[in-house]
Write a structure and sequence with these properties.
Blueprint (H helix, E strand, L loop, with lengths): L5 H6 L8 H14 L7 H13 L3 H11 L4 H17 L1
Length: about 90
């Protein structure tokens, strides 16, 4: 039977496979600038929030930047959407 250490699995690299934070960041970019989708700051904020939770500092900066253009209600919607996504995953 093969044996491996948990620490080894956590450090494993999958070469060109993007990390979750990279994928979430790209989704945030798509919605924040309207790349192949309509501009939607609520959805962009959600994806930047999730990317930031996974360590993407650029996503944190951009989330703050678009939050300046959003109402408090929209920010709350984005935060609820991020929490709902986390619960569902």
């Amino acid at each position: 039977m093969a044996r491996f250490e948990i620490a080894d699995a956590q450090c494993a690299s999958f070469a060109s496979v993007p990390t979750a934070s990279d994928t979430f960041f790209e989704l945030g970019m798509m919605y924040s600038i309207g790349r192949s989708v309509p501009v939607d700051f609520v959805t962009a904020h959600k994806w930047f929030n999730l990317a930031g939770l996974r360590g993407n500092t650029e996503a944190v900066r951009l989330r703050r930047e678009i939050a300046d253009q959003m109402s408090a209600v929209e920010i709350a919607q984005a935060q609820r959407a991020a929490r709902a996504w986390l619960k569902a995953s």
